Amino acid sequence: MEKLDKDILALLADDSRLTARKIAAALGEDAKLVEERIRTLEDNGVIVKYTAIENSDLTDDDLVEALIEVKVTPQRGAGFDAIAQEIAANSEVKNLYLMSGAYDLAVTVECKSLKDVSRFVYEKISTYESVISTATHFILKKYKVEGALMKKGGENRLSIQA
Q1: 65: which strand partners?
Q2: Which has the least CB within 10 A, 12, 80, 115, 120?
Q3: How far is the C-alpha of 132 from the C-alpha of 126, rounded, in Å?
């Protein structure tokens, strides 16, 4: 990957609202070139999604988030990928990672209640044949998400002007 692409990705990762024009100004590049590079990164699957990070302490959102560690038996010919794809297909799943350590998969879920998280674990995750065990951890408070500090009123936000 070229340096320009890496620089564009770094700026978008910090603030996905940046326009190609603002990115071009920050990097001293032509806006059309930056726009083309962003489109190529999207088309090639390097940029998967643009998203906003919500400070749930400031919304009326009462969703429950949990981190579920899952120990599995890898499947012949598919390793961990097949079970990971099955788990990822559930709408409650927000993130899914293959991990080193005592558990193989780390799954973050978002549900309407503690009971729904529990139900997800015992009705879905634990029913997969290759699942050996799980450990569920409820997220009580977020201090930092994707590099952004979760401060009241967003006082940590920086404005980028071009």
Answers
A1: 110
A2: 115
A3: 8
15-39 burial, b for 16+ CB within 10 Å, e for fewer? eeebebebbbbebebeeeebeebbe
Q: Which residue has the tokens 């999604």?
A: 49
Give the percent of the chain with pLDDT over 90: 67
Give the torsion sign (CA, 150, 154, 157, 160). Answer: positive
Per the CB < 8 A criterion, the answer to whether 113 and 63 are in contact is no
29 to each of 17, 48, 50, how far by Cα in Å? 18, 23, 22
3-class DSSP state of 44 = coil
Query: pTM above the 0.85 mark?
Result: no
